[in-house]
């Protein structure tokens, strides 16, 4: 079906393609970029695997590893794939490619990687399609003309070689599931959601297989779960809707499976929703990006592995798909915003997630942005410079789209190669983007050790279990038939919502640690409630001596049981009751943030631990949590 909606969505989805609407001729401004450190220095400068500490990505030594990245376009599909990419007759709507990173027909892979070193980056976002993983046909010889040793290989085997070459040079590689089919995204092409042209089970199986395939290569550092989730003709993807199109739930589940079943070293990278609604003036439509994370964030089974991701291009906007003509709305594009408006919008849509001490705190990787070298629109040029200013001011992780293209077709690439292998782009000068690129990759940024920071994590039982402890998972179902929430290992439960099933976990303050030699105790009665009724008239499930809450379960809205860990030391017994059935009752400033938006919440202080939950089975209250017993640690 080709109609107005398809056209508008197709243009919007060019976010991934790095293409703008009919750019005008170039206006050169020669500014070369200085060369980067040699490959040996890059390999020696960091030690895998990567993890996170607060808003920063760190290496195995705890040193900040700023993702200064480029996208190596191509394996997800980009041209028709006859081998003659320069022939316009072969551009049949970008249907198929030879499913490999671009440039292998023009220059050796070593030269492309040398270009990446010169660009000053340390990491590569490497797209793939699910179709590519299963294509057993050898790639055409013409597609690897400059790399004859790749002849006769399947697309996945070529992908293997590129991954091995890039990581051998010291680059960190992030695998990016860009599309389902190998058609160039984006539009109504079967790639709108992770499950549009394949089942969610197949998507998960493909990811698990790929993560296992590269498990022994420690410089394969991340799994970017899916690119630019967006609307189909009939419906939107949603965030925590509890159905088959729930992107929050799908990414949460797959992230946990990758860490527990395939490769515990990977960073799990989750992009927000790229588009919801029908892009017509008068109807609701917007680009959610990461804004839903404020209300519902991810808590992975391994804390310290989550990275959030967002994409920004000047021709799109917070409520604009990027369409020109048919399907275009009257909403402003990012390039139409003033510098101050742009900065505020970027912070609202994405960079807020780096705020310390929140349930959503995580690094934010701007894994796509870019502009064409032949762009002369002063608004787009001003947007690009301002966007780079914002990346520098926020010391942000980034990935430019794309790194490699074709002279005559790759107007957005940082480096274009013609058929003779001659290179043009920001490294040679004559490219208006060069000065901004140089500023970006050479800007001062935080380096060195990053101290460990307090973790604050949300448990979301709205629609399913949230058992985020490896140890508890290994012991099986501790309250069959109920919805269960358990904090990640090393954390304790400090907050609960009166309705909806949300909880808050932390390791902040003088936190008691669980004794690993003991089994958590399930409590379903009042046997541990001592003298002095801390919640008169209410049923109380309380941990025994020297135990603290790490989990809870619900049946409907009613408390079903609590889970208590044995502390590795003696705990205090002085306590207080924190009621939250008629309003919020949280410490000043609310460390951890609003973990249950719209619901009453109770929360112990950072120097306390929760030892019990009180609830009433009265008809009006329905057994929902009403109070916490908070004790000094």
TrEMBL record:
Name of protein: Glycoside hydrolase family 5 protein
PANTHER family in alphabetical order: CELLULASE FAMILY PROTEIN (AFU_ORTHOLOGUE AFUA_5G14560)
Disordered: annotated segments: 76-101
Ranges annotated as biased composition (Basic and acidic residues): 88-98
Molecular functions (GO terms): hydrolase activity, acting on glycosyl bonds
Superkingdom of this protein's organism: Bacteria
EC number: 3.2.1.-
Record's keyword terms, sorted: Glycosidase, Hydrolase, Signal
Signal sequence coordinates: 1-21
Family note: Belongs to the glycosyl hydrolase 5 (cellulase A) family.
Domain spans labelled Glycoside hydrolase family: 108-401
SUPFAM superfamilies noted in UniProt: (Trans)glycosidases (SSF51445)
Coiled coil spans: none
């Amino acid at each position: 079906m080709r109609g107005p909606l398809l056209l508008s969505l197709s243009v919007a989805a060019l976010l991934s393609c790095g293409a703008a609407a009919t750019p005008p001729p170039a206006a050169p401004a020669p500014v070369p970029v200085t060369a980067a450190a040699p490959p040996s220095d890059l390999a020696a400068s960091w030690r895998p695997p990567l993890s996170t500490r607060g808003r920063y990505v760190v290496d195995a030594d705890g040193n900040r590893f700023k993702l200064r990245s480029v996208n190596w376009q191509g394996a997800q599909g980009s041209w028709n794939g006859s081998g003659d990419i320069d022939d316009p007759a072969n551009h049949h709507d970008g249907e198929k490619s030879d499913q490999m990173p671009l440039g292998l027909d023009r220059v050796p892979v070593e030269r492309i990687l040398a270009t990446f070193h010169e660009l000053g980056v340390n990491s590569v976002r490497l797209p793939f399609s699910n179709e590519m993983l299963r294509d057993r046909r050898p790639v055409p010889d013409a597609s690897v003309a400059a790399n004859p040793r790749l002849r006769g290989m399947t697309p996945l085997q070529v992908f293997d070689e590129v991954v091995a070459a890039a990581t051998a040079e010291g680059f960190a590689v992030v695998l990016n599931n860009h599309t389902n089919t190998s058609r160039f995204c984006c539009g109504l092409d079967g790639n709108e959601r992770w499950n549009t042209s394949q089942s969610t089970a197949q998507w998960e199986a493909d990811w698990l297989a790929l993560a296992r395939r590269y498990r022994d290569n420690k410089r394969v550092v991340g799994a970017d779960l899916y690119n630019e989730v967006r609307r189909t003709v009939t419906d939107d993807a949603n965030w925590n809707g509890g159905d088959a199109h729930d992107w929050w739930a799908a990414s949460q589940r797959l992230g946990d499976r990758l860490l527990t079943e395939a490769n515990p070293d990977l960073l799990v990278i989750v992009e927000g929703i790229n588009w919801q609604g029908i892009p017509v003036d008068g109807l609701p439509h917007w680009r959610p990006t990461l804004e839903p994370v404020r209300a519902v964030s991810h808590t992975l089974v391994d804390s310290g592995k989550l990275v959030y991701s967002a994409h920004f291009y000047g021709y799109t906007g917070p409520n604009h798909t990027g369409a020109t003509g048919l399907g275009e709305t009257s909403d402003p594009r990012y390039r139409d915003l003033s510098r101050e408006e742009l900065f505020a919008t970027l912070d609202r849509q994405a960079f807020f997630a780096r705020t310390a001490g929140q349930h959503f705190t995580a690094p934010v990787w701007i894994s796509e942005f870019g502009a064409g070298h032949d762009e002369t629109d002063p608004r787009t040029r001003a947007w690009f410079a301002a966007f780079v200013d914002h990346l520098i001011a926020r010391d942000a992780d980034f990935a430019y789209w794309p790194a490699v293209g074709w002279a005559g077709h790759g107007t957005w690439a940082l480096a274009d190669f013609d058929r003779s292998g001659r290179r043009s782009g920001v490294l040679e000068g004559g490219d208006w983007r060069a000065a901004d690129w140089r500023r970006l990759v050479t800007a001062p940024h935080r380096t060195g050790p990053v101290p460990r920071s307090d973790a604050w994590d949300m448990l979301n039982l709205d629609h399913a279990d949230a058992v985020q402890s490896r140890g508890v998972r290994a012991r099986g179902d501790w309250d069959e038939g109920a919805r269960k929430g358990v904090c990640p290992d090393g954390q304790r439960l400090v907050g609960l919502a009166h309705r909806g099933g949300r909880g808050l976990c932390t390791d902040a303050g003088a936190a008691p640690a669980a004794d690993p030699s003991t089994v958590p105790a399930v409590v379903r009665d009042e046997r541990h409630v001592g003298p002095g009724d801390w919640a008169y008239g209410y049923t109380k499930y309380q941990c025994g001596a020297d135990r603290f809450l790490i989990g809870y379960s619900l049946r409907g809205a009613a408390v079903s049981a609590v889970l208590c860990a044995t502390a590795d030391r003696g705990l205090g017994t002085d306590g207080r009751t924190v009621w939250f059935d008629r309003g919020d009752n949280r410490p000043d400033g609310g460390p951890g943030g609003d973990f249950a938006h719209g619901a009453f919440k109770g929360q112990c202080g950072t120097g306390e631990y929760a030892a019990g939950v009180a609830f009433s089975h009265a008809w009006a209250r329905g057994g929902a949590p009403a109070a916490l017993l908070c004790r000094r640690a």
